[in-house]
Design a protein that fits this description.
The structure is a homodimer. By secondary structure, the first copy, chain A, is of the alpha/beta class. Chain A is built from 8 helices and 8 strands; from the N terminus they run αβααβαβαββαβαββα. In chain A, the strands form 2 sheets. Chain A has a 6-stranded parallel beta sheet with strand order 5-4-3-6-7-8, sandwiched between helices. Chain A has a two-stranded antiparallel sheet with strand order 1-2. In chain A, helix 5 links the parallel strand 3 and strand 4. Chain A is globular and about 60 Å long.
Chain lengths: ~210, ~210
């Protein structure tokens, strides 16, 4: 029945829109709404109704004629499409402020994503814990711990000079997807998926906007 | 001579590409290269040569027939286009791990972007300093300090429930651009530019990629 688009054919912008749509549905559900429409979603949450219909159409027939969408059903199907219907285990390499911030955030360590451990090379940090209790382990134990915990996703929160080697270690440890926060664009490492998040780009994009006002 | 595209007409993806191109030029310059071409940039750095020419064409005529691009000249012009030819002062609201990580990162606190101070409401943090010496000030002093230091950019690194009010305070303090890391999409706050960076979206995008392998 439902046609599943190939993930690599769906743009990052589109998956981000699906994530945002899912949050809107959770809000509606908290208000005990049972049905909604692309028009309501557009008006309430500032989304584009044609874009909603187009994004959803990639994954099958979600709408119900004369009703719009059933909130709970659409939420469940979006969760499945986004792979959020099961728990993903994470390891975080780098127990500096950024690594610890991510480990302690409810969005990185909650029901859907669970942080197994932070890893560092600094002997003063190893053996410690983050504020919410995530253990900081020795980076040399990463392969064993990642395999034993069946971690799928590795977060790189290390300095730029340490990033390539840390990424290679994650791959060796069987990690399937890497989210890299070091300001260096890591190339593809098949079969793993690599996503580079360079926070400076966002700052430079603001600077560009401000420059246009001069 | 040079035609300046209106910033709002240039997509975020395009400004990110210009930022990445600028980094490639810095690498070439460090190698003492004086000229380059869109083909060389494509081959060495994995960029798309047609896209490079298209992106640059928005801002005027950068190329030199038979030569390609002069590295130093193109770098300087890109820096100007991106507004990176002058210093932008930043204030960071929220002195938790994320705020402190950003304050101590060379990319957020260097020559182009300078962090004036971190702000918090927690009396135990106020009066302290980050590892690199950024002072943590009382959030109630934000308007005065932001104005005195001529801060233009405000970073929100506060919990989701504190984000809307903190954003409103930044605007009152004369801040022109906000980079919001709280997992809530803040709407437009004209005349300020607001950019929401929701790190969970990147994680969900990886989850989506992994789901497609099932």
């Amino acid at each position: 029945m439902s046609i599943r688009a190939r993930p690599e054919a769906v743009s990052e912008a589109a998956t981000h829109r699906l994530s945002l749509l899912l949050r809107c549905l959770k809000t509606l559900e908290a208000e005990r709404a049972t049905t909604t429409s692309s028009r309501e979603l557009a008006e309430r949450f500032g989304l584009n109704s044609a874009q909603i219909r187009k994004d959803l159409a990639q994954f099958g027939d979600f709408g119900i004629r004369g009703v719009g969408y059933r909130v709970g059903e659409l939420r469940d199907r979006l969760r499945t499409v986004l792979g959020l219907d099961r728990t993903h285990r994470l390891v975080i390499v780098g127990a500096g402020n950024l690594g610890v911030a991510l480990a302690d955030s409810r969005n990185f360590n909650g029901d859907t994503f669970k942080v197994v451990a932070l890893f560092d090379v600094d002997g003063r940090k190893i053996g410690g814990k983050s504020r919410t209790g995530i253990p900081i382990r020795d980076a040399t134990d990463l392969p064993r711990i990642a395999r034993e915990s069946e971690a799928e996703i590795g977060i790189l929160a290390v300095p730029v000079e340490a990033a390539p080697e840390a990424a290679a270690r994650l791959i060796e440890a069987g990690i399937q997807a890497i989210l890299n926060f070091a300001p260096i664009a890591l190339g593809p490492m098949p079969p793993a998926v690599v996503k580079n998040v360079d926070l400076t780009l966002f700052l430079e994009s603001l600077s560009f906007q401000l420059a246009g006002r001069g």
